[in-house]
Amino acid sequence: NLFPLVRRYSKQKARSRVQSTTNGGKALDRAFSFLCWVIKREKGIVARFSHKVLKTATQNVRNML
């Protein structure tokens, strides 16, 4: 009687598919979190750079007046 073995095998395959999908989802979550962190960090660097440039430009204009 092979039917119970086939059913058990198909349940195991279904579990492994779900686990595989879950692991893929975790990997995507990590990648997305890392990407958000990089973008946030780069925005901070750009903001600091922009502030520095604006401050320098303002000082230059004041010196011209």
TrEMBL record:
This is IS110 family transposase. It comes from Clostridium innocuum.
